[in-house]
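Methods — Computational structure assignment.
A single polypeptide chain was analysed. Its primary sequence is given first, followed by the predicted tertiary structure written as C-alpha coordinates.
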Amino acid sequence: MRLIVHGWPANHLMFEYQYTLLASHGYCCIGMDIRGFGKSDAPWESYSYDRMADDLRAVIDELQLENAALVGFSMGGAIASRYMSRHNGHGIKRLLLAGAATPVFTR
Protein backbone atom coordinates (compact mmCIF):
# COMPACT_ATOMS: atom_id res chain seq x y z
CA MET A 1 0.00 0.00 0.00
CA ARG A 2 1.30 3.46 -0.96
CA LEU A 3 -0.23 6.57 0.57
CA ILE A 4 0.82 9.60 -1.47
CA VAL A 5 0.57 13.20 -0.24
CA HIS A 6 0.84 15.95 -2.87
CA GLY A 7 2.48 19.35 -2.66
CA TRP A 8 1.07 22.86 -2.67
CA PRO A 9 -1.06 23.97 -4.60
CA ALA A 10 -1.88 20.66 -6.34
CA ASN A 11 -4.17 17.75 -5.45
CA HIS A 12 -4.09 13.95 -5.67
CA LEU A 13 -4.40 14.08 -9.48
CA MET A 14 -0.83 15.35 -9.60
CA PHE A 15 0.24 11.70 -9.48
CA GLU A 16 -2.37 10.14 -11.81
CA TYR A 17 0.30 8.67 -14.12
CA GLN A 18 2.26 7.23 -11.19
CA TYR A 19 -0.92 5.60 -9.80
CA THR A 20 -1.49 3.87 -13.14
CA LEU A 21 2.10 2.69 -13.44
CA LEU A 22 2.30 1.45 -9.85
CA ALA A 23 -1.06 -0.34 -10.15
CA SER A 24 0.16 -2.10 -13.31
CA HIS A 25 2.98 -3.52 -11.16
CA GLY A 26 0.59 -4.73 -8.46
CA TYR A 27 0.83 -1.84 -6.01
CA CYS A 28 -2.24 -0.32 -4.42
CA CYS A 29 -2.04 3.48 -4.14
CA ILE A 30 -4.10 6.04 -2.28
CA GLY A 31 -3.84 9.72 -3.12
CA MET A 32 -4.90 12.02 -0.32
CA ASP A 33 -5.96 15.62 -0.93
CA ILE A 34 -4.61 17.77 1.87
CA ARG A 35 -6.91 20.14 3.70
CA GLY A 36 -8.37 22.77 1.37
CA PHE A 37 -7.13 21.20 -1.90
CA GLY A 38 -8.81 18.95 -4.46
CA LYS A 39 -11.85 17.21 -2.99
CA SER A 40 -10.92 18.04 0.61
CA ASP A 41 -12.97 20.45 2.70
CA ALA A 42 -11.68 24.00 3.02
CA PRO A 43 -12.37 25.02 6.64
CA TRP A 44 -12.00 28.58 7.85
CA GLU A 45 -9.13 27.78 10.18
CA SER A 46 -6.62 25.17 11.32
CA TYR A 47 -4.16 24.87 8.45
CA SER A 48 -1.19 24.03 10.66
CA TYR A 49 1.19 21.14 9.97
CA ASP A 50 -0.04 19.53 13.19
CA ARG A 51 -3.64 19.65 11.92
CA MET A 52 -2.67 18.22 8.53
CA ALA A 53 -0.65 15.46 10.23
CA ASP A 54 -3.75 14.68 12.29
CA ASP A 55 -5.82 14.60 9.07
CA LEU A 56 -3.34 12.06 7.69
CA ARG A 57 -3.74 10.00 10.88
CA ALA A 58 -7.52 10.04 10.43
CA VAL A 59 -7.15 8.63 6.89
CA ILE A 60 -4.72 5.94 8.06
CA ASP A 61 -7.03 4.95 10.92
CA GLU A 62 -10.19 4.99 8.78
CA LEU A 63 -8.57 2.75 6.15
CA GLN A 64 -6.89 0.62 8.84
CA LEU A 65 -3.54 0.87 7.10
CA GLU A 66 -0.65 -1.15 8.46
CA ASN A 67 2.90 -1.32 7.12
CA ALA A 68 2.10 1.24 4.42
CA ALA A 69 4.61 3.31 2.52
CA LEU A 70 4.04 7.04 3.00
CA VAL A 71 5.19 9.24 0.12
CA GLY A 72 5.34 13.00 0.59
CA PHE A 73 6.16 15.46 -2.18
CA SER A 74 7.07 19.11 -1.49
CA MET A 75 4.65 20.40 1.17
CA GLY A 76 3.33 16.82 1.39
CA GLY A 77 6.83 15.85 2.52
CA ALA A 78 6.66 18.35 5.37
CA ILE A 79 3.26 16.94 6.35
CA ALA A 80 4.60 13.37 6.17
CA SER A 81 7.58 14.33 8.36
CA ARG A 82 5.32 15.98 10.92
CA TYR A 83 3.06 12.92 10.86
CA MET A 84 5.97 10.57 11.55
CA SER A 85 7.16 12.59 14.54
CA ARG A 86 3.72 13.50 15.92
CA HIS A 87 2.16 10.02 15.57
CA ASN A 88 5.29 7.90 15.95
CA GLY A 89 4.92 6.47 12.44
CA HIS A 90 1.61 4.76 13.24
CA GLY A 91 0.67 2.43 10.36
CA ILE A 92 3.74 3.34 8.32
CA LYS A 93 6.62 1.01 7.49
CA ARG A 94 8.44 3.15 4.92
CA LEU A 95 8.76 6.86 4.29
CA LEU A 96 9.75 8.49 1.00
CA LEU A 97 10.32 12.25 0.90
CA ALA A 98 10.54 13.62 -2.65
CA GLY A 99 11.59 17.25 -2.96
CA ALA A 100 10.27 17.70 0.56
CA ALA A 101 9.79 21.15 2.05
CA THR A 102 11.63 20.13 5.21
CA PRO A 103 13.14 20.81 7.66
CA VAL A 104 12.51 24.51 7.07
CA PHE A 105 9.80 25.37 4.55
CA THR A 106 11.49 28.55 3.38
CA ARG A 107 14.93 27.05 2.57
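Note: The first helix runs from residue 16 to 24.
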